[in-house]
Specification:
121 residues, mainly beta, Lipocalin, eight-stranded antiparallel beta barrel
């Protein structure tokens, strides 16, 4: 009986901790690079997180910038970038939370596929 109570207590504690674990917050300013078939340029993003929803602005060394929208689920992000001249890109990335918080991912736009890597400032 004591083993059953101990096991039940452990399960309740584990489920409670899992349900109330803090959400990953990626709000803030990020800087890094974007690499395309034409080379590598700087990429800066300012992200606002409201629950699972992401919004913000971005600019790049390619001379393009604009707004960003997306979602975060766990450590995975999905979103879109829109910019001047009808620019549009779809992005997918993963947030790493080791010693330095980073977002690493890839996307597609009118010019093809690109990769990006950002670190929190």
């Amino acid at each position: 009986m004591k083993k059953a109570i101990l096991l039940l207590s452990f399960i309740v504690m584990f489920v409670s901790c899992s349900m109330f674990s803090p959400r990953l917050d990626i709000s803030g300013d990020w800087t890094g690079t974007s690499t395309t078939q034409y080379g590598t340029r700087r990429l800066d993003m300012s992200i606002i997180q409201n629950g699972d929803n992401l919004s913000g602005t971005w600019s790049s060394g390619w001379g393009i910038g604009g707004n960003s929208f997306g979602t975060i689920s766990g450590k995975k992000i999905q979103g879109t970038l829109s910019g001047s001249g009808g620019y549009s890109a779809t992005i997918n990335g993963t947030v790493t939370s080791g010693g330095m918080k980073q977002i690493i991912g890839s996307g597609t736009d009118q010019g093809g596929r690109f990769t990006f890597q950002l670190r929190k400032i």
